[in-house]
Amino acid sequence: MAKLKKLNAFRRKLMRSLTRNVGPSKTYIKGDSEVTFKRILINRPNGRLGNLLLITPLVKEVSETFPNSKIDLFVKGNLAPILFKNYEQVDRYIKLPGKPFKNLFQYAATWMRLKKNSYDLVINVIPTSSSGRLSTKVARAKNKSFGDLPQTFEGQYDDYAHIAKYPVYSFRKYLSFLGLETQDKPVYSLGLNLSPSEIEVGKQLLHDLVKNDKKTICIFTYATGEKRLTEFWWTEMYEKLQRTFPDYNIVEVLPKENVSQIAFKAPTYYSREIREIGAFMHNAAVFIGADSGMMHLASASGTPTVGLFSITKTDVYEPYNNGSIAFKAASESIEKCISEISRMLTQDQE
Questions:
Q1: Hey, how many other C-beta atoms are within 10 angstroms of the C-beta on 242?
Q2: 222 and 318 belong to one structural domain
Q3: Digit-coded pLDDT (tens) for 335-344
Q4: How does pLDDT run across 67-102, given as a tens digit for each residue?
Q5: 39 vs 120, 136, 193, 263, 290, CA distance in Å?
Q6: In this structure, is residue 166 part of a structural domain?
Q7: In the chain, count of helices (H) and strands (E)?
Q8: Which of 97, 90, 91, 96 is CA-nearest to residue 56?
Q9: DSSP 8-class letter at 79
Q10: Which of 173, 190, 200, 283 has its CA 20 to 30 A from that of 146?
Q11: Is residue 4 helix, strand or coil?
Q12: pTM: predicted TM-score of the whole model, two decimal places
């Protein structure tokens, strides 16, 4: 495992070095603005749950801007088709293998497939992504956006740094550069696009667990690495939630590792089905969890979300749907967090 991490770190460093100057020397290179945008490629060669959900606002924006277009996604792994299942305009998935070094032939074949297709527009989601820039360079298209924004843009929007919003602002700026009209409006929230039947299944799963009609507070106590809050922190948090909100169910959603930072004291829900988990959380009154893919899933499911941050930047990753907030758990008290949750639940009742 340690050797694999070192190998991946070397690969990322090498790719950044090789692709440092890939892309336009200026912020944008004008292509053919008269083209009909029928086939669009969005490049986000990453397979992590949160990172894929964070491009849903861009996919929504592109779909709305070009309603007759078809969108291909260049991603990694097999998760994207699940997340974008109900996005009608998403057509094809060009998928890098999740473990490139174990699937070198598939990895090479995917890059060759990328070269064979022809597009009217290619969008690189993350400008600092070496593989994103390279795939944008390789793809055949009349118009390409490498995702860069001019430095003067920083003063136009106070939320430009958010990893889900920046690509949308960049897309709008590129269209403006082509002479196309854009709308200055709030960026869409993350969206799993759950169907009514999926939501109903989630509602039944929740009811079968709690066996009452009270509203539910959903917690997720796990996170990777230093983002994970301690068992001591979560135990204190759980006990205070119980005392403060006796009229609510408190349910813990478990990670795929099937571990709990509160020693499984609360009723637990476990599933490996991402859309089912999202539907389950959709039916909760609020979700509380550390910055993670599960936090973004709760946000994408439409649930008011309290994101607990310790080391990552709130302005880059905070949940922003439906009154959601980012809470700096490393520096602020649990009492303050409880107060924020109380405010959110009160607003939910109004």
A1: 14
A2: yes
A3: 999 999 999 9
A4: 999 999 999 999 999 999 999 999 999 999 988 777
A5: 6, 14, 22, 50, 37
A6: yes
A7: 13, 13
A8: 90
A9: -
A10: 190
A11: helix
A12: 0.90
